[in-house]
Amino acid sequence: MHFGPILRALMHNKTRFWLITLEVGLTLAIVVNCINVTLDFRAQYTHESGMDEANLMVVTTEPFGAEFKEEEFVENLEREDLASLRSFPGVRDALATTSVPISGGGSATSRKALGSELDSESTPYYIVSDHVVDTFGLELLAGRRFEPGDFEFDEDENGDILHRNVLVTETLANAYYPEGDALGKMVQNDEGQLTNTIVGIVSDMDNSWPTWDNGKHRVLFFPGQPGSDRRMRYIVRVDEGAIDSVFSGLEQRVLGINPERIVRVETLGEYREDYYSAQLAMIKMLSAVSFLLLLITSLGIVGLTAFSVTQRTRQIGTRRALGATKGDIVRYFLVENWIITGIGLILGAAMTYGLNFVLVSIADSPKLEWPLLVGGMLLLWVTGVVAAYVPAQRATLVSPEIATRSV
Amino acid sequence: MLAYHLKIAFKSLRRNPVLSTLLIGGIALGIAVSTAFVTTYYLMASDPIPEKSDRLFAVQLDSWEVDDPYDDDHPEEPPLQITYRDLQGIMQSDIPSLQSGMYKAQLTVHPEAETDRPYRANTRLCFGDFFAMFDVPFTYGGYWGQQADKGPEPVVVLSQETNQRLFGGENSVGRTVRLEDRDFTVVGVMDAWQPMIKYYDVNNFQFDESEEIFIPFNFNRPLELSSSGNTSGWKFHPGNEYEDFLQSENVFIQMWVQLDSDRQRDEYLSFLDAYTEGQRELGRFERPTNNRVRPVMEWLEVNEVVPEEAKLMLIIAVLFLLVCSVNLIGILLGKFLARAPEVGVRRALGASKLSIFAQHLVECELIGLLGGGIGIVLSALALELINGLFDDTFSFGLDLNMVGAGVLLSLVSGLIAGVYPAWRICRVAPASHLKLQ
Amino acid sequence: MIRMQNISKIYRTEHIETHALSGFSLHVEPGEFLSVMGPSGSGKTTFLNVAGLLDSFESGTYHLGGEDVSTLSDRQMSRIRNEKIGFIFQSFNLIPDLNVFDNVDVPLRYRGVGAATRRDAIEEALEIVGLTSRLKHYPSQLSGGQQQRVAVARALVGTPGLILADEPTGNLDSAMANEIMDLLEKINEMGTTVIVVSHDPELAARAGRQIYLLDGRLIDMESLETPAPLFKPDAVPTQPPTQV
Fold first, then answer.
1. B216 by DSSP, 3-state: which?
2. Of C79, C93, C111, the CB nearest to B345
3. Under DSSP, is residue B229 helix (H, G, I), strand (E, B) or coil?
């Protein structure tokens, strides 16, 4: 089978040729860009949080009883809650916190190395009870865990705590002290009256906003009293695989200690689903669009190949009469299709980069990597061959006798 | 003639049902996908309050730190919210026709029925002008007056859903609702009011639902309510009491005013500038004077409320329709050229080129419209699917404009797809196909 | 009716130029019944296409019914084809999607005639060809002869002054061919100018006047007395033509 004659025959019918080429090219551009964005969203969604996420649950309680106005009451209840949660069968550990990682809700402050002249670093933080390392399932890289002494503070005349010991993630520690010698050093706020000593460095984990690139893996833990009369919240780590059995019992457990509150139990996985709901939805929408597009393009190729077969019924008959086998005929149409899709794909490669450029600048999409483009080209090429095969097969049904028949 | 062209077009479609299904189905898919995503974009980007969006203004004061702007990427931009102290200051003005500071908080609601557990409700603290400013519709009663703002008097406006939940949807005006530790009297029940973009407070999430409960702003102090929206500050303020928080440089209040004329607007800006000048003497507002009043649409633009994902889908959807059209061109070209002999006969019998062109274009438009009709129905379904994908954060649906846009899109794609094939076929030499068929 | 002066028609493809008509002149009077003969490739069909305004020509002048047609727009030419000319083709060229009534209707549709007038005209035309009972039949349900009679009705329906028939009997057996020729004679007797292109000398002889074409030229009568050596044997008329 020689390309030359097929190509020349193709160029004889320029419009049809360019139409399929254009369609294949556009489809490649759209599908590859859709997949590119989809993969990016998928990577965001599936990215490891650094925590023992599969075994983490969140218990949120919103008090309404009058006695919650008393700070001491909240403090005692929190202690009681924690003890009770930690002793629940299947629970490994628990802590109290102000907010939840991967939830989109949380707080951030500013800190920098003590005495530094540089701009301060954004510092997402959680005020937590102890058991931080073991509840989140982190690794203690340097220093120590919180000790009871870390929860005893000196207050100034306004009731402000001016100094605390803190734990930070590795990434944040290196942001303050790029030399990697943060342990035991101090950080300060902009004005300098609030200071903290880094007593431990833990492995990286996601904060409340994992998609916030500049804040990635930055977490600071303040030891303290996270609960308030508005909200008391706990993170519970369960034994491997015990999440379902523990889940159902926790609400009653907490209400049993004090019923004057609204209680919600969720898994951290649910928070993740929620936080990434837009990405998940986009993945589904883009996949659906890509699929439909491939469908339309393959139908288009089926249609146009079928048309090309019908148009050349007589010619096929003549070829058959001149000794072409059925295989030769199928091959003729397939090679024709390869040439068309091939040129379409080359054109499409340029269009793919063009569209990617537009999407990067307008919609902040990720840059396209070439292996994905090659993958997309292969996908479309195979789609084209499959789509062309059916009508090409039909061409073999043309009998050689047709060549001699005058209509 | 149009009737005749339509008749021929219908005959032509009936002649090859498989091909016609392909053609119509293809365009239907294109219209469905494009209309669905154009609709989502349009609903996000369109004016939420067209009758008066140019008279409603978000107020910004640059109370931020002298050498560290609020937004490092846009140092010329003042903070998006204002402090409690500044609210107290600028609410003194009598220039705006209507004005309200506001923020979102969480309140515990104690339903009357003993069996119902208390729950937390999203609550908006605002002034009575809020409802007039944003044209909030009421089913029962109305909003509170300035007296209640000052008191503050324990009055409450309920959303339609909250009234349904607490009072089974009855007229509850005059009844009491227990919020936190005190009773509030219902003065109004809102009609359904759910702007696509929560334009009066785009912090946190621009597609959030509007609040369930509205109470006078000045309850913030007695109830010590902190914001459940964004709070940002730059200056350490000593003390842990609520009062300390109110006196700090934390911004958490959205400020809106209605200014009905340019003159009013200028006057109000001068007032703001004079106010911040006065504050500067007290040691605040160290940054250059940079006060803004921004109309709704500009405000939404500054806050970039249309997500990049929506833009992305819009581009993809338009290209999708383009592919469908190219596909259509290809198939139509084949279909039409196969009909060249018939066209030759018609030409011989007196059809002009124009008439042949028109006939085929009518056929394309018929395909476009049939596909468009199906596509619009499909796009309504697609929007339902999209709503489901986002856990019903959105309530996208087709409105008349979008149905119109869908019809227009289908006509345009029929035209785009049809022009070339119709032009090709009308140029067929009349004599060339008459001799042998 | 037809006045052609020195018409030349050249077909061009990428590589070849074919002179289909060269220096062709012909006058046809209103009411004439003319047959055109000649071997294949002699330009008969080209002549018919040019005469029927289906094709343009390079040089020369052509007056149809006193009107110079060489400068007309496509729209004007279409109008003339529609109102003044009726076509009959060898392969009938009925539109397969349309039934008999609708096929005959086609020229009237392009004229923009009211529905009632159209119905009368169609029925009258079908009456003439004797097919009033088959209004709802589709072409595929008719015999070749019937199809050609529908085509004749379609040519007649607009009451054109000129009917151009290209091998109208070429696809028919002799009985049917005679029927069609009878019809054409009948139409001619009603005052319509009829021009028939035919291979068949017997049928051609039924025309009032016969002309011969060779290599795009009209062969003059005198030279035909002694056939030119150029003639291919199968194309040589069996009988010397006579002019009426």
1. strand
2. C93
3. coil
List chains touching A (3+ CB pairs under 8 A): B
Nearest Cα residue to B213 out of B108, B84, B100, B56: B108
Interface of B with A in 306-365 (CB under 8 A): 307-309, 311-313, 315-317, 319-320, 322-324, 326-327, 329-331, 333-334, 338
**Domain assignment present for B131:** yes
| Range 244-273 of A in CB contact (< 8 A) with B | 262
Q: Does A139 touch chain B (CB under 8 A)?
A: no
Q: How far is B317 from chain A (nearest CA, A)?
A: 8
Q: Which residue of B has its CA nearest to C93?
A: B345
What are the φ and ψ backbone dihedral angles of C74, each rounded to 5 degrees?
-55, -40
Q: What is the pLDDT of residues A272-292, one digit of tens each?
A: 998 998 888 889 999 999 999
Tell whether B180 lies on the interface with A, counting CB pairs under 8 A: yes
| Closest-CA residue of chain C to B11 | C97
A175 belongs to a structural domain: yes
Domain count for chain C, please give it: 1
What range defines the domain where residue A345 resides?
3-46+278-403
Query: Is B312–A37 a contact, with Cβ atoms under 8 angstroms apart?
Result: yes
Contacts of B240 in chain A (CB under 8 A): 158-160
Give the ranges where B282-352 is alpha helix by DSSP (H).
296-302, 308-337, 340-348
What residues of chain B lie within 8 A of the CB of A33, using their CB? 316
| Nearest residue in chain C measured CA to CA from B342 | C95
Strands B119-126 and B213-216 turn out to be: parallel
Domain range for residue B403?
2-48+307-426
Q: Are residues A32 and A138 in the same domain?
A: no
CA distances from B318 to A191, B306, B413, B418, C25 (A): 52, 17, 11, 18, 59
* Pairing label, strands B182-190, B292-295: unpaired
Structural domain contains residue C244: no
Q: What is the mean pLDDT of residues C143-170?
A: 91
* Paired sense of beta strands C162-166 and C59-64, if any: unpaired
Residue ending a domain, among B290, B320, B355, is B290
Across the range B304-321, mean pLDDT stands at 89
CATH number at residue C168: 3.40.50.300
The CA distance from A140 to the nearest CA of chain B, in Å, is 31
Residues B172 and B312 placed together within one structural domain of the fold: no
Run of H or E residues at A143: strand A140-143
Is residue C239 one of the residues assigned to a domain? no
Q: Is the ipTM of this complex over 0.90?
A: no
Residue B230 near residue B161, CB atoms below 8 Å? no
Counted domains in chain B = 2
Residue C231 lies in a domain: no
* DSSP conformation letters of A38-53: HHHHHHHHH---SS-G
Report how far Cα A273 is from the mean position of its chain's Cα atoms: 10
Rounded Cα–Cα distance for residues A256 and A249 (Å): 11
**Of A164, A190, A225, the domain-final residue:** A225
Asked whether residue A303 is domain-assigned, the answer is yes
Instruction: Tell me the pLDDT tens digit for each residue of A110-150.
Output: 899 998 888 888 999 999 998 999 999 999 999 999 999 99
Tell me: do B75 and B6 sit in the same domain.
Answer: no
B259 and B336 part of one domain: no
pLDDT of residue A89: 92
Q: Is B147 found in the same domain as B264?
A: yes
Q: Which chains touch C (3 or more CB pairs under 8 A)?
A: B
Domain containing C176 equals 2-223
Please identify, among B237, B263, B290, the residue that sits at the C-terminal boundary of a domain: B290
